[in-house]
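Hi V.,

You were right to ask for the full record rather than a summary. Here it is.
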Amino acid sequence: MPRATAPVAVPVPTSTAVEVVSSCGALLRALPEEIGEGLKRRKVLGDPLRTAAWGDPAVTLECGVARPTRPEPPIEVGPNDDGPLVAFTTHDVGAATRFTTSDRSVTVAVTVPDVYDGQVLVDLTGPLRALPTPSPAPGS
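Predicted structure:
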């Protein structure tokens, strides 16, 4: 069965903060062209400097989203190189799970359709861990 190649509609985050726009631009340039087992990067409708997509059904990434209002306890995911882990909260969104970073100062959401295994998220953690982490409070 042929896979879709048309651009994917991905909601564009609305934050215009300088740190967010700068960090998202760097992240999008660092993202891989392929994730999981052969999921190729696809064009997106909207802002290609803040959003990305791979495969069909599409795994989507949105950079600069709002933090979840009801965050779940985080899970930690790491790249295959034993580097630092990235913490995500999860939210079931029907036939997919939305993973939202919880330990970065710029929040990123990755929506992974249930048909894929966890490798697609693992493949994105390398670039995600390069995002800035929140500065500790003075005196902590």
